[in-house]
Specification:
By secondary structure, the chain is α/β, with parallel strands linked by helices. Helix content is 36%, strand content 28%. It has three domains: 66 residues, 2-Layer Sandwich (Histidine-containing Protein, Chain: A), CATH 3.30.1340; 66 residues, Histidine-containing Protein, Chain: A, CATH 3.30.1340; 66 residues, Histidine-containing Protein, Chain: A, CATH 3.30.1340.30. Helix 1 crosses helix 2. It starts with a helix and ends with a strand. The model has no long low-confidence stretch (mean pLDDT 87).
Length: 216
């Protein structure tokens, strides 16, 4: 007698073998010989073909048919379709390390986990997801700059300050509280303050900035 995992493997192979079925969007689960088909197909005929293909596999006791019909003109808003489009968008985006970002979609709600080097990459990932139709919300728990110590981040920010032509680096102080940056000191105008903030945000691992710079 076949185990459930062996039966699942054989049903997947039979669906792939059947020329009238596009198996890519069909999921198969097996419990005590009962096969559940989930996902979506493009027509009622394909739905029947998938059911017949599964039923002719030796060891199948029953079929639970949960396939949905989605025509080519229908909006691609199923969770698996949303996830695929997100991964494609991440792959095409030059600033995102797509291999380090994991995507989960449940009823249109997208959860992002993993890690990126820069805060702007985390913001870019959320922005990309929000543009995809069918997404109802985003939970972004990406870790920023994992492995970069606060002391290293502080030095990178101070070095960046010294490179700025429009900022007196000696007038601005930097302290770290984990991944939070606290800026202090005195500058002569809003422009200098904005330059300091922008430089601090560009450092890896920064997730929050507390700007206490005074304009004098």
């Amino acid at each position: 007698m076949k185990s459930d995992s062996e039966l699942q493997r054989d049903v997947l192979a039979e669906l792939k073998w059947e020329p009238s079925v596009d198996h890519a969007d069909i999921g198969v689960s097996v419990t005590d010989g009962v096969v559940t088909l989930s996902g979506h197909v493009k027509s009622y005929a394909e739905k029947l073909a998938a059911e017949h293909a599964a039923s002719r596999v030796a060891g199948v006791k029953a079929i639970a048919q949960e396939l949905k019909i989605r025509f080519a003109s229908d909006p691609k808003t199923a969770d698996d379709e949303i996830a695929k489009r997100i991964l494609d968008m991440f792959r095409w985006n030059a600033v995102l390390p797509e291999e380090r970002i994991k995507v989960k979609v449940e009823h249109g709600w997208v959860s992002l986990t993993g890690n990126v080097d820069w805060n702007y990459q985390s913001r870019e990932a959320s922005k990309v997801v929000s543009m995809i139709s069918g997404v109802v919300g985003v939970s972004n728990t990406l870790q920023v700059g994992k492995g970069t110590s606060p002391a290293e981040v502080r030095k990178l920010i101070e070095d960046a300050f010294r490179r700025q032509a429009d900022l007196d680096a000696r007038a601005v102080t930097v302290t770290m509280d984990g991944s939070k940056v606290k800026l202090g000191g005195n500058v002569h105008g809003w422009h200098e303050r904005q330059v300091a903030e922008r430089a601090a945000w560009s450092a890896p691992g920064v997730t929050q900035i507390e700007d206490q710079i005074r304009i004098v």
